[in-house]
Structures are given as C-alpha cells and as structure tokens.
Design brief:
Layout lengths: L2 H38 L2 H13 L15 H7 L2 H13 L22 E10 L3 E9 L7 E10 L2 E10 L3 E3 H5 L7
Antiparallel strand pairs: 1-2, 2-3, 3-4, 4-5
Length: 183
C-alpha cells in the first residue's frame, strides 16, 4: 500500500473512532436529559412520591422519610426558598426547644396515619402548580385537605408551601417564618 493509501486509512480510522465517540457522548447526554425529565414528573407525581416516601417500605407511615425532617428528602422535594426558611427557623430555635414546625405537614400530624389518599391537580401553569391531597387520618370523620403549592426549579417540580384548608387551618410558610403564632 502506498503512502497516500496508508494516510487515507489512518484518517478513515480516526474519523470512525470520532464518530463512535460522538455517538456515545450524544447517547449519554440524551439519556441524562430523558432521566431528568422522567425524574421531574408532573406536579401530581411529585406529591404522590412524597406520600410514597412518607409511607416507607412497609406502606404504613411508621418508617418513612418526612420531606421536612429528612435532609435528602428536603433537597429532593422542597423548593430552595422553603429550604432556606426551614434552616432559618431551625437556627433561631433555642437549643432544647421544639421548632415552630413541630409536626409533619405531610400527614398534618405527629402520629402518621394516611388512609384513602386522593391526589388531584387543582391548577397548573408552566412554572407553578397546586395539587390537593386529601385523606382520612386515624378514626377522624373529617378528611384532611392539604394544598401543595409547587414551583418549577431547574426543570423539576418542588414544594414551595403546603396549606391546610380542613378544620385545622395553617400554612407551612407562615409557621416556619414565625407568622402563625396560633397554629
């Protein structure tokens, strides 16, 4: 084979390696983007995932992770704004005292019980959504009704506030900022 043939063969081989490398990189990027979109889910999917995490492996809400008290869950489910407010609340709480938020808003309780959970989309724009979770708790006859206010951050839906509209009325953002003394 002459020099020109050898040179052409090396160039073709190099182009083939580059093509394969570009194909692999492109496939990885597309795969990562698909995974990010799948992880983002709909606002209702996010609220359902919150209750699934809270229910724990046994599904009985006795060994699950609370999005308000578990650091990994906070990062996964809460907006940056709500995370900052929670950290500020914890910082201003004297050592040994209970913080203002002294219950789990996801179940509106200290003793988790979520029965007959129904999750519905109330409204949605490109950047904000309201999802309603309502359920029975223990033997109470009135259903617990919680409105989850979600915002889109970096392509993912995050909880920015929770408002209880049932018989006990409260709002997480007001509790954690000390604006709800009777909650």
């Amino acid at each position: 084979m002459n020099e020109r043939g050898k040179s052409l063969r090396r160039e073709t081989s190099a182009l083939s390696r580059r093509g394969v490398l570009l194909f692999i990189v492109f496939g990885a990027v597309v795969g990562v983007n698909r995974a990010a979109v799948a992880a983002a889910g709909s606002p209702s999917d996010v609220v359902a995932a919150i209750y699934k995490a809270a229910a724990g492996p046994g599904g009985k809400y006795d060994d699950g992770a609370s999005i308000f008290f578990d650091p990994a869950s906070r990062k996964r489910f809460l907006s940056k704004n709500l995370e900052v407010e929670l950290k500020a609340m914890e910082k201003r709480t004297p050592k040994g005292d209970e913080p203002d938020l002294d219950f789990d808003p996801v179940c509106a309780c200290n003793d988790p019980s979520v029965l007959d959970l129904k999750i519905t989309m109330e409204s949605q724009t490109d950047t904000q959504a309201v999802v309603v979770a309502n359920f029975q708790s223990h033997d109470e006859k009135d259903r617990i009704v919680l409105r989850y206010l979600l915002v889109k951050e970096n392509g993912a839906w995050k909880v920015d506030d929770i408002i209880s509209t049932g018989k006990d009325k409260w709002q997480v953002s007001k509790i954690v900022t000390g604006q709800c003394p009777n909650c």
